[in-house]
Write a structure and sequence with these properties.
The chain is α/β, with parallel strands linked by helices. Helix content is about 40%, strand content about 20%. The protein contains 14 helices and 11 strands. A 7-stranded parallel β-sheet has the order 7-6-5-10-8-11-9, sandwiched between helices. A 4-stranded mixed β-sheet has the order 1-4-2-3.
Length: about 280
């Protein structure tokens, strides 16, 4: 196949490259997903796919799925794909996607059993990784507060490894609205903090983790502000049994979310009751 997009000055290429900036993403309500894994998971949200002929042959299943969904697929040179990409070594496939965030009210109406809330999380890699952890743990939603990083930042999209397309995500929600809405839906709010009064192991041993739960995770550098901690039903620390000074955000989030997931699936947990 001869590449259809060969010029870096093509309007399509210029428009795609502009999506590296948050202001353009917000205006167009479009973002880019790079690499075969992300594009495979994004099929239902794609506007167009750009691929080198070599990548199209290597990932024929993805190209076929996109075309079956009615998504235009355009071949491009390596230089064009590199211009569109945020990575140093592009994998030859880029998807142009529609925004897919979910209104917070819809998440509340669904009465979720497990939610991850990112409050003032600024690092896009951390945000994407926490989203991936939430997806793996079986969470039903992720919420980013109004002070958190852009969900559609290329690094956040890449770090989610496709999980962005798997579960509802609300963005730009004030933390007070998050807490109030989830509490009205019967969800217990737990703030994750290394200096928390409650110990995660003790909470598990006491059987206090089996109900609907939302974990609030704070900023990478300074954690959760006191006013946010005060909104939670409990402030919980992950116990450090060895000599490590602390856990990073994504690791702590994985531990907390999996602790809740296991408790909810145990006898008497909300998921075991729902499924019986």
């Amino acid at each position: 196949m001869a590449p259809e997009l060969t010029s870096l000055r093509s309007p399509r290429v210029i428009a795609a490259r502009r999506l590296a900036k948050r202001s353009f993403r917000g205006k167009e309500r479009r973002f880019l997903a790079e690499g075969p894994q992300a594009v495979r998971e994004a099929i239902q949200h794609l506007v167009e796919v750009y691929t080198t002929p070599e990548a199209a042959a290597r990932h024929a299943d993805i190209i076929a799925a996109a075309r079956d969904a009615g998504v235009p697929v355009l071949t491009a040179t390596d230089e064009v794909i590199a211009e569109m990409s945020d990575t140093v070594t592009p994998q030859g496939v880029v998807g142009l996607c529609r925004f897919l965030d979910t209104p917070f009210e819809e998440i509340v109406r669904a009465r979720p059993k497990l939610v991850a809330v990112l409050a003032n999380v600024r690092d896009p890699g951390n945000a994407g990784t926490v989203l991936r952890c939430a997806d793996a743990a079986g969470a039903e939603a992720v919420v980013l507060t109004d002070a958190s990083v852009d969900l559609y930042n290329p690094k956040a999209v890449r770090a989610s490894v496709g999980s962005l397309f798997h579960l509802p995500v609300a963005v730009g929600v004030p933390v007070e609205t998050v807490v109030g809405g989830l509490r009205e839906a019967g969800v217990r709010l737990l703030a994750a903090d290394g200096a928390g009064e409650a110990d995660l192991d003790a909470e598990l041993d006491a059987g206090a983790m089996g109900g609907p739960t939302a974990w609030i995770f704070g900023n990478e550098a300074w954690g959760l502000p006191e006013e946010t901690r005060a909104l939670a039903d409990a402030v919980v620390r992950v116990p450090i049994h060895g000599r490590a000074e602390s856990l990073n955000l994504a690791t702590a989030a994985a531990v907390c979310l999996y602790a809740s997931a296991r408790a909810q699936r145990a006898p008497g947990g909300c998921r075991s009751v729902t499924s019986s």
